[in-house]
Each structure stands twice: as C-alpha cells, then as structure tokens.
Amino acid sequence: MKLSNLVGLALSAVSCLALDPVEVKGNAFFVKDSRFYIRGLDYQPGGSSTLIDPLANPDTCERDIKYFKELGINTIRIYSIDNTADHDECMEKLADAGIYVIFDVNIPNASIARDDAKCSYNTMYLNEVLATVLKMAKYDNTLGYFAANEVINDEDSTKAASYVKAVVRDMKTFIKNRKIRAIPVGYSAADVAENRLETAMYFNCGDDEMARVDMFGFNDYSWCGKSSFKTSGYDEKVKDYSNYSVPLFFSEYGCNKVTPRPFTEVESLYSTDMTGVFSGGLVYEYSEEANKYGLVKISSDNKTVTPNDDFDNLKSEFSKTSNPSGDGSFQEDLPHNNCPPQSDKWEASNKIPDTPKGALKYIKGVEDPKGNGFDASTQWACVAKGNDDDDSGDKSTRTGAGSSATKASGSQSSGGSSSSSSSSKKGDAVVASASGALISLALAVGAFII
C-alpha cells in the first residue's frame, strides 16, 4: 500500500468522533444536510502575532471553553499553531463542546513576506505549512485552513497574491494526494477598499481548481456602534459578491470605535438579507490585548477570566438571533469568476508560481513534512547556499504543465465597489514584512499538477 494511503487511513482512525465535519456545498457550509453558519471568535490569548499555542495547554482550553459555551459559539480561529505540539486533549474538549477550529498555517517567521514573496515561497516554508496541515487534519472539528492572512494590504502588495495562490494550490494538492478529507482551504483578506473586490475575485478565478480557494474570509470593521445594513455598507458587499461561488464569511469583525461594542451587526449577519451570500463570522477577539478588542480579561497568572460589557452584549445578540430556517437561500451551482485584469491598483500576475521542486516529495506523498514548530524561520531560505529551489527556467524538472489563472470560465461576480471603510483594527495580523537588500534566487519552474 502506498504511503499516502496509509496516512489517510491513519488519520481516519484517530479522528475525533464527537462532531461531523463541516463541508462546502456551493457557496455555503453544511454539516451533513444542514446549513452551517460560523458563530465564532478569533482566539489567540497574548495577541494574534504572539507565539503562544492556546491548544497545546489543556488547562487553558478548559478555562476558556466554559466561556465559549456561555456565548453559544460554534467556531474559533487560531492564528498561530505549533506543528510539533500535542493538541489531542484540547481538540477533543472543543469537539465535546460543539466547537470547530479554523487554523492559520503560518507563523511570523514562516510566512509569505510582502516585500519579497518570491524568496519566502520556498521548500522550507512549504515543509512548515504542510506539516501544520497534516498535524491538524486528523480532527473532524478542523473546519478549515487559511493559507495566509492580510498579505495584500495596499496596491503594491498585490504583487504577492500569486504566491499566496500558489500556497493554496500546494495545500489542496497535498490534501488530495494524501487522501485526507476535503478540508477547506481559504484566504483571510484585509478590508482594503481599493482592491477588496479584486482580491476576492482573484482567489476564486482560473481554470486550475486546485489553485482556487474553497472559502474566503474578510477582516471587516465597517459596522461601528449601532449602524445599519445600509450605513455599514453590508448591503453593497452582498451585491458585490452575490455570484461568488464559495462560502464567504467575516474572518474578523467587531469595530471598537464605539465602546462597549453593541454588536448589533449580528442580527443582520444571520438574517436572510445576508445568508444567501455570507455564512456568518468570527468576532475579534476573545482576550483583551493591547489593541482593546477583547471580550474578556485574563489575569496575569492565567487563572482568572473576567468577561466585560462586550462579552455580555455579544452573548445577548447571539442568544436572540437565530439562524434562518432551511438552507438560507444558498446557491449550489455558481461558476467560478473571471480573473481581475491587471491595473495600477491590481498588479498580481495570473501566472501562478510553480511549486519549488524540493517540496514535491511532500505533496506527492513520498515523504512526510516535519515541522519545526515556533522555531521555524524560512523567509530567506532562498539565499542559503545550495538551496534546492535555486533552479532556473528550462532546467527545472517538470511533473506537469504550468499553473495559470488566465483561462477562467464562468460569469464574473457582480461589479461595483462597497462603501464601507477599511479595517479599523490596528496591529497584530500574522504577516511578515521584510526590508533591506536581499539576494533572491529564482523559484523552480514547472508546476506540480496531479
């Protein structure tokens, strides 16, 4: 039996059985035959760019799950996960509480760097990403993975988009080849008005299904205080993405310009005004950090949790807001959209970089990736002497045709630009940005296609 088959069987054997997996069906999430809406929190005590794995400490999990249950949530997002740690106990406790998890697969020193995406996309980096995917794939309450968070945050950083899309392709191909269940892979986007629509379109375009996201998240802070469906620009977002073919949700929300936060957006988010296009969202964030978005304060000894007014308001809004009956007007057979044309505000290439040849052994199932946890530092591996990604043009070993995003079919999602403002959250997105002169070697040419 092939190694990849053995891995798939092993993962199935140790899966948590308390929850049925979340699946993608059209532009919505489902658990078996029931529509699933994300009602959740961004959860990273210490801050979303702090290297603390909250699921590696069963005492921390038990402490906080009590409050998750009080809020009535069904999903948390983890920004940094240690791919060498044991997460069995925490994931089981979360499953017992009916809670799924979305994992970001990057850490600050092992991520796509905006300033040199080409260099940071290398074999060592993919080893870490795929080790995280493999580590968390055995749990049925793993809802999905984010290939990156807020890499694109202005016009210049759109150049990095093709490298993030390559990571999506590599992750999805790895999952398929390993015979792991179809865990959704997505991207979490900054709410940048100048290229918000182009970003969403780009990650859902092209003739290579493996390079298109399975879900797409917005970090959205446009509803502040007691706003409304129209004033916030939510109505325009629904129009803009009415033909988007995969699930959309808010991967962060909860503007704090008005405090305590009333969370009146909850009623709109789970109403039929939005559920035909959006599938809920994740409130930013559980614990109070320097940027003042927390729902609870955790004592310095990490033993005591004190909910604040934001917590009480969110609890109240969740408790009085039920999901729509039936399927929430989801759409099952929407085609993927056309790729956005290159312009001054959108410089992403529709030619997706080829997988570094050194990483193909992981993606093909020949060898397991072995993560280095929070010690990983991969962004400048391309400058190391003898790096196996130092290969040029026609000399590269090919395993198939190159990946391209240019031959898209299907209808474009409806145009127009939303009226909401850019994210009001400041600070701690897990995206590394490099500076200074660095020698960047060419990536291997020759994509891996099944």
TrEMBL record:
Splits internally a 1,3-beta-glucan molecule and transfers the newly generated reducing end (the donor) to the non-reducing end of another 1,3-beta-glucan molecule (the acceptor) forming a 1,3-beta linkage, resulting in the elongation of 1,3-beta-glucan chains in the cell wall. It is a lipid-anchor; GPI-anchor. GO terms for molecular function: 1,3-beta-glucanosyltransferase activity. Belongs to the glycosyl hydrolase 72 family. Keywords: Glycoprotein, GPI-anchor, Lipoprotein, Membrane, Signal, Transferase. Residues 306-353, 385-427 are annotated as: Disordered. Its main location: other. One of its GO terms (cellular component) is side of membrane. It comes from Meyerozyma guilliermondii (strain ATCC 6260 / CBS 566 / DSM 6381 / JCM 1539 / NBRC 10279 / NRRL Y-324). Its EC number is 2.4.1.-. GO terms for biological process: fungal-type cell wall (1->3)-beta-D-glucan biosynthetic process; fungal-type cell wall organization. InterPro entries: GH, Glucanosyltransferase. This is 1,3-beta-glucanosyltransferase. It comes from the Eukaryota. Residues 398-427 have a biased composition (Low complexity). Gene3D superfamilies: Glycosidases. The keyword Ribonucleoprotein does not apply. It is found in: Cell envelope; Cell membrane; Membrane. Residues 319-328 have a biased composition (Polar residues). PROSITE patterns: PROKAR_LIPOPROTEIN. It holds the Pfam family Glyco_hydro_72. Residues 1-18 form the signal peptide.
